[in-house]
Amino acid sequence: MSPEARRDQFIDLGLQMVRDRPLELVSIDAIAEAAGVSRALLFHYFASKQEFHVAIARAQADEMLECTAPDETLGDPLAMLSGSMSAFIDYVSANREAYMAFMRGSSSADPAMREVFDGTRAVMSARILDHAPALGIDVTPVVEMTVQGWISFVEETTISWLTDPVVTRDELLGVITASLPALASVVQHP
């Protein structure tokens, strides 16, 4: 196995494990055992358990960003938003344990993890801001700040829903997708 393929194998095994347990409980020993290699080999690819966990978080973020990429063929930015948010809800529902652990677990305070989270949010924000002009919205610092706040709203609302689903999935989707245009309207026309 090539070094890149071996490293990817370890990350894939880590991704599989975080689907049903918090990241903190994904041990180096469990990964090594699942891969059929020694613990020492895993440390050849990752300097520490923390570095390995960051690699898992980065892979999880990349996976989520890939499945939530706007469908440009829809043409309508609001339809793209709805499609992306629908995919986001489905993704975090399917990866509930990992999402909750990344957002709420002890690793969420780690600076390297924060960098992964912030980078993911920056991509999500850029996707929205890239389509704002098609809706007649000028991208200003206030609009940028509002979009960043909306992303936090989406994360918190989704966590609340995952924890206690008092509304249906479609109701959650409706709240999330309707809130951004409503905020844009207030910001654009105070």
TrEMBL record:
<dbReference type="Pfam" id="PF00440">
    <property type="entry name" value="TetR_N"/>
</dbReference>
<dbReference type="Pfam" id="PF21943">
    <property type="entry name" value="TetR_C_46"/>
</dbReference>
<dbReference type="InterPro" id="IPR001647">
    <property type="entry name" value="HTH_TetR"/>
</dbReference>
<keyword id="KW-0238">DNA-binding</keyword>
<dbReference type="InterPro" id="IPR054129">
    <property type="entry name" value="DesT_TetR_C"/>
</dbReference>
<dbReference type="InterPro" id="IPR050109">
    <property type="entry name" value="HTH-type_TetR-like_transc_reg"/>
</dbReference>
<dbReference type="InterPro" id="IPR009057">
    <property type="entry name" value="Homeodomain-like_sf"/>
</dbReference>
<dbReference type="GO" id="GO:0000976">
    <property type="term" value="F:transcription cis-regulatory region binding"/>
</dbReference>
<keyword id="KW-0804">Transcription</keyword>
<keyword id="KW-0805">Transcription regulation</keyword>
<protein>
    <submittedName>
        <fullName>TetR/AcrR family transcriptional regulator</fullName>
    </submittedName>
</protein>
<feature type="DNA-binding region" description="H-T-H motif">
    <location>
        <begin position="27"/>
        <end position="46"/>
    </location>
</feature>
<dbReference type="GO" id="GO:0003700">
    <property type="term" value="F:DNA-binding transcription factor activity"/>
</dbReference>
<feature type="domain" description="HTH tetR-type">
    <location>
        <begin position="4"/>
        <end position="64"/>
    </location>
</feature>
